[in-house]
Amino acid sequence: MIPAIQVDQVAKRYGSLQALAGVSLDIAQGEFFGLLGPNGAGKTTLINILAGLVIPSGGTARVMGFDVRERYREARRALGVVPQELVFDPFFTVRETLTIQSGYFGLAGNRGWIDEVMHHLDLTSKADTNMRALSGGMKRRVLVAQALVHKPPVIVLDEPTAGVDVELRQALWKFVRRLNLDGHTIVLTTHYLEEAEALCARIAMLKQGQIVALDTTQNLLRMHSGCYVVLRLDPNALPAALEPLVVERREDGACRLALKDYVEVESVMAQLRKAQVRVQEMEVMRPDLEEVFVQIMQKA
Amino acid sequence: MTGFYTLFYKEWLRFWKVSVQTVLAPVLTALLFLLVFSHSLRGHVEVFPGVGYASFLVPGLAMMSILQNAFANSSSSLMQSKMQGNMIFMLLAPLSHGEFFLAYLLAAMARGMVVGSGVFAGTLWFVDLPLAHPLWAFLFALFGSGIMGALGIIAGVQSEKVDQLAVFQNFIILPLTFLSGVFYSIQSLPPFWQWLSHLNPIFYMVDGFRYGFFGHADVPPLISLSIVALCFFALSWLTYWLIKTGYKLRY
Predict the structure, then answer these.
(1) In terms of CB atoms within 10 Å, which end of chain A has fewer, N or C?
(2) Residue A46 lies in a domain
């Protein structure tokens, strides 16, 4: 099967700044893929190259097998992009905006699908409201709807939940998950790593225009072999031998210890028994994507 | 075709929804020009034999309105879309370069024509205007608005800020239209200024357009039409090429 996205040695230079330095990446059809990295890592540049908004200095990029430069019309038809900035055309209502966007993609009489998209994004009551009169969250919903009017097989969401309230975030993820289950390929960039961990099956991490990690989310989490133990003790006196392991002391008296491996939990318990300290509460936590991300970025 | 039609329709709606500002205001401005100039110069100037100054002025003012509004439409639309960021919606779409160019061009021409028609409509009841060669008048209006629509696209694409567009408008378009013989025949100018006027393509648009009404022109209309058509096709090619390369649109 043709990959949904094929990026081969894509580079982009702005004067002396190397925004992308030869990135290669394949994303299979139907994947929920995360593109992570600090600000300026090149995530948006890569997305913009796929969308045809940025012309690469080198390499090739394909969407559903169509070269984004040579076969730009087919490539753009296959791609729906939710841009990062909250942009809108102040001349039009929500329905007009979606009908016009649909028309750009060659679709006349797309009312049924537009109504469905508006329904799923809770926009129906705002259909005839001018874009100017919408709140930020509502404008964000319209941006998502605009990216979906042509039912693209590949959907790219560039930080779609930045500055968005919990309700919309949850509604958005529910809808995007459904689209993914229906077979749409989803590419997501976000700074909320818990979102990426919960949603993305595979992740690429970028730093300074290069891919520094590319693996399934599970494998990336396994890379960090250690774990954390949160303890509340009685009396609240941690044995001196365990002090070097403390990474956090909480206001409620609990402390968090970083262990290199799960097997070390037993030795911690032994030390506590030896010091005759009673465990009031204990929680063993596996590292999350944020820890893995920080670790990878520090190493790279 | 749906993509082209949608973009054209969007551009049409964009000015039509605010037609008080984009149509009515320029018509009123042209009528005020007519009122002031025709009143103050009545009886002092007779450019063509048997043609009153007010009648002489109307086609010039109509052409000036067509040109300025065609330019304003494409340039301000592109400029605003770039500044507000909503240009991205057109750039993400699978519109061909030709569709993109033609939609902006034809919408600009349409606004020029609508405003030009408004000027004629506003003057009908107090200025007696012959129409000797309507097809000639139409052709010059068509090419003239096309040239300005294309120039507007170039200016809109080129400008990063509002003041850059203002420089284009105030220091190039406005002087060229005012010094093109809208208010006078270049026969009344000293030889140097006559020669200089011949370098101004807008002069040929106004002169040829006026020929359509009075059957008189400073330059044979076929020559004017050839020059205007040449300018139109050259500018159209340049504009299309800029769009194709993504100049200042795709980075």
Answers:
(1) N
(2) yes
